[in-house]
Amino acid sequence: MRLSSLADYAVVLMAAAARHCGGVGRLNATLLAEETGVPLPTAQKLVSRLAAAGLLESARGTGGGFRLSRPPSAISLADVIEAVEGPIALTSCVSGTRDDCAIDGSCRVKPHWSVVNGAVRGALAGVSLASLSVLEQA
């Protein structure tokens, strides 16, 4: 299992935004791109997706930009990853799309995948941006 580079970059951007939480005004994609090394077009794309998912609040015009919609302790890695990649689903059995499974009707493991998927999602949900941004500074 591996996250896409977009999901990875989204986590990096959100952790940087969490470090700025409570600081001066609003952030912008240019500032975060410079701080993190994420290419600016990618940062702009991700800021839009994260705002659409309700993780960032944005404002246009003078003094515009964005900020976290909730405290960093209330935003998890699962939230960020799902904002970019959609629901966490390790297999097609869990996602509900069985189109590519040749053994769907006879699989004895299928009933257990939701438990495994829940454990992985739970682990990601247990890591907040607040804890990640503290670890990142160490």
Automatic annotation (TrEMBL):
Annotated protein name in UniProt = SUF system Fe-S cluster assembly regulator
Organism in which the protein naturally occurs: Sphingomonas longa
Identify the domain of life: Bacteria
Coiled-coil residues are none
The UniProt entry, under Pfam families, shows: Rrf2
